[in-house]
Prior knowledge:
The protein has helices at 14-23, 47-53, 68-81, 101-109, 130-147, 163-168, 178-188, 212-230, 232-259, 271-315; strands spanning 3-10, 33-41, 58-62, 86-89, 115-119, 159-162, 192-196. With 321 residues, it is α/β, with parallel strands linked by helices. It has two domains: 3-229, Spore Coat Polysaccharide Biosynthesis Protein SpsA, Chain A, CATH 3.90.550.10; 232-312. It has a seven-stranded mixed beta sheet with strand order 3-2-1-4-6-5-7, with helices on both faces. Residues 91, 93, 95 line the site of magnesium ion.
Amino acid sequence: MKKLIIQIPCYNEEATLGLTLSKLPRQIPGVDKVEWLIINDGSIDKTVEVAKACKVDHIVNFEHNQGLAKAFMAGIEACLKAGADIIVNTDADNQYNAADIPKLIQPILDGDAEIVVGARPIEEIEHFSPVKKMLQKLGSWVVRIASKTKIPDAPSGFRAISRNAALRLNVFNEYTYTLETIIQAGQKGIRITSVPIRTNNYLRPSRLVKSIPTYIQRSILTIIRIFMTYQPLQFFTILGSVPFTVGFLLCLRWIILYLGILGDSPDKPRTPSLIFAAILIIIGFQLWMFGLIADLMSVNRKLLEDIQLRIRKSDLNSPHK
Ligand code: UDP
Ligand code: MG
């Protein structure tokens, strides 16, 4: 028996959750059972009452707001416990068109992929400001480089995940799970693909993008941290190359002047520039060393993830499987 669970993280979504749930399918060709799960991320409104009235099958409750990344992961865990073979994640504001869920899970049913990301027609979304569009593109580009995948719309929250892939996901970032999960898929060899999906009309402002400056700041920090975590050697090599190169050139200049290769120069003490060059070279080297250490540490993380996968699997050896 194949079970699909559709999960929705909710933070104060009483106004739109009812509509969103009314559009969700209860039957989909290719799966035997469709269940719904919401994660109440510390809502202080009637989100849970709405969910119960709409006959949601599972509710995960957070006492306080913990943010989307935590809510998403708690949902995944609950879905796995409930015996889901496929998990679909969507938003509570009816942002994504639920009629596209069959399309979203098709690559998993066909065995072609383990994670499917729904790609929105970003250019056509009217309420996205140019800055938000640009950041979405920048984020997607960085994710494509770091993950070596071809996902066009990385921050999309409309996704289908197979049980196998769900067991292997980890999210360290507090703010968003979207970028990290794609990079992990790329690095762990989890097959990931993307299908175009439709979006619905705008119902409410984003809960995640409170203001553009904080959104920019968070996006940049997120991207830097992801690079540091998942491509540490590359990250620190590039970072260290900057002071090293400047220091090296400065050193070269000093040697040329010292040896008088370009003819005699006026008698000026050039010790300050030599000291400065040495400092820069040392900083560059240090950063490279950090890269090596971080790279060794990431080997550890991979080992720990293997252990975690085994523990998760044995914990979940429930009657469902
Ligand atoms: N959400 C959440 N906890 C939060 C913020 C958001 O569970 O702290 C939920 C929210 O209810 C929605 C989903 O995460 O269902 C995505 O949020 P939103 O639609 O505001 O983000 P966007 O689509 O703008 O990225
Ligand atoms: Mg949304």
